[in-house]
Automatic annotation (TrEMBL):
SUPFAM superfamilies: alpha/beta-Hydrolases. The keyword Hydrolase applies. This is Alpha/beta hydrolase family protein. GO terms for molecular function: carboxylic ester hydrolase activity. Residues 178-427 form the Serine aminopeptidase S33 domain. It comes from the Bacteria. Keywords: Hydrolase. PANTHER family: ESTERASE ESTD. InterPro entries: AB_hydrolase_Est10, AB_hydrolase_fold, Hydrolase_4. Pfam families: Hydrolase_4.
Length: 462
């Protein structure tokens, strides 16, 4: 149910004019009259800040040359409870350094473009519609990355899935507790989970992320049980790895991944040691879909009568699905026909026509519409941590938490927690918030979120 935004998504904000300054610097550097020879890569540990609308964010960059011509970098934000990311598409063409967080992402990608000036890096950090000024200064040698990566391939039924395993190297453990990371519905590629895997590996967990079975074959949409089978196949692959403590392997999922984790963990036998679900659905898909549509309409200024009209259409459609397509469909047909004459209908997920009985059985949006996630969680017998943001725009987070607290909250070692003002990623969004005294601020993890999660996971992995 996630919309694919990353934890670093800044949302809608104004632009700055700093791009022109960077462009001028690049032109000057590339001029045939500029004279100086090409500089070597600016390896080292850099500290400084990014600034937007007067809001400073402390920033560190560790840039390494792992072998001649091969660069590696990590950008981190000490004020954001240790969040950061490993650089992708990293290039240095003297004097310009450039890298991204999540190339190709529809939202939440972050791009750094900077000019080397001696021990300084000056430039821009861009994400969504924000262009922030970046200033970093070299303070010494780069800190080593505290984990190593190894490619992983494993079988799930007839399929071979490809992934990456991050193995901690900053401790003396021969075998590490491990976690399989599971995607939200909108993000089938492993790169969407890279920042989370980086965080977990820095806290001592071997972290396996992989491309979901539909990553290379869209638009096919796998069912949650199929994804749960893949998750268990990933667990088996970890159990065969000499660097993994096979007794302490857990599942970590965001959005739909939380539901998939419950399905995988709830099967016969103790397949995993613990489960973490971030914004995992606790209500049927029909309820969440209706919630998302109503939120989108209100955000776009729809009149109360229009919201009621859309609500009635969703309710009629749900009754049709519940009857498995049987009975009179005249009223539903008229409702959809009338509704799609309104321009705001495009902001909902209502269909233009009534789905056929075959579509009800084969298309996931209809086949899974009435599934209640509580049924999966009732089968989970290992400790579970369920985390929600009260300002989630993709589901009624408090209702999801209430329903699942009644299923897993009473079990020993299990916790269900809701963070005030936090979104689907358990972040306080960028912009003017109640806690910022009327000033723009950077997105931040909800207070206590990262510490709460890591403390619980380390206890569950003992």
């Amino acid at each position: 149910m996630s919309n694919g935004r990353s934890v670093f998504s800044l949302g809608k904000a104004g632009h700055t004019v700093a791009a022109g300054l960077l462009g001028a610097a690049l032109l000057a550097a590339c001029s045939p009259d500029s004279g100086p020879k090409a500089l070597p890569p600016p390896t080292g540990h850099f500290e400084g800040r990014v600034t937007y609308q007067g809001a400073d964010l402390r920033t560190t960059l560790d840039l390494r040359e792992t072998r001649p011509g091969q660069l590696q970098a990590d950008l981190r934000f000490p004020d954001l409870q240790g969040l950061g990311f490993p650089a992708e598409n990293l290039t240095f063409k003297s004097p310009q350094l450039r890298f991204e967080r999540q190339p190709g992402a529809k939202a939440g990608n972050l791009v750094v473009e900077a000019i080397r000036e001696g021990d300084f890096l000056r430039g821009l950090l861009t994400t969504d519609s924000v262009k922030a000024d970046l200033l970093l200064v070299r303070r010494g040698k780069p800190d080593p990355r505290p984990y190593r990566e190894t490619p992983v391939r494993f079988r799930s039924g007839p399929l071979t899935l490809a992934g990456t395993l991050l193995i901690p190297t900053a401790d003396t453990l021969r075998r590490h507790p491990a976690v399989v990371l599971l995607h939200s519905s909108a993000s089938p590629h492993q790169r969407a989970l890279r920042a989370y895997a980086d965080l977990l590996a820095r806290h001592g967990f071997a972290a396996l992320l992989y491309d979901r079975r539909d990553a290379a074959r869209p638009p096919a949409i796998p069912s949650p049980p199929e994804l749960a089978e893949d998750a268990l196949a990933a667990v088996q692959a970890l159990k065969r790895n000499a660097a993994v403590d096979s007794v302490h392997i857990g599942l970590w999922g965001i959005g739909q991944g939380g539901h998939v984790a419950a399905l995988a963990a709830g099967g016969p036998g103790k397949k995993v040691a613990f489960v973490v679900a971030v914004s995992g659905p606790g209500v049927p898909l029909a309820t969440a879909t209706r919630f998302q549509a109503m939120a989108a309409l209100r955000q776009r200024g729809a009149a109360p009568a229009e919201v009621r009209q859309a609500t009635q259409a969703f309710e009629q459609l749900e009754r049709y699905v519940r009857r498995n397509g049987q009975g009179d469909t005249t009223q539903l047909h008229q409702t959809l026909q009338t509704l799609w004459q309104q321009p705001w209908a495009a902001f909902t997920t209502l269909p233009r026509r009534i789905p056929t009985t075959t579509e009800l059985q084969t298309q996931p949006r209809w086949r899974d519409l009435l599934l209640d996630p509580r049924a999966a969680w009732q089968q989970v017998r290992v400790p579970a941590l369920l985390l929600y943001g009260a300002a989630d725009d993709q589901q009624d987070a408090r209702e999801s938490a209430r329903r699942l607290r009644g299923v897993v909250g009473y079990r020993r070692g299990s916790v269900v927690r809701v963070y005030a003002n936090a979104n689907h990623e358990i972040m306080l969004p960028a912009g003017v918030r109640p806690d910022t005294d009327g000033k723009w601020d950077w997105p931040r993890p909800a207070p206590g979120y990262i510490d709460d999660m890591m403390t619980w996971m380390k206890q569950a992995a003992k």
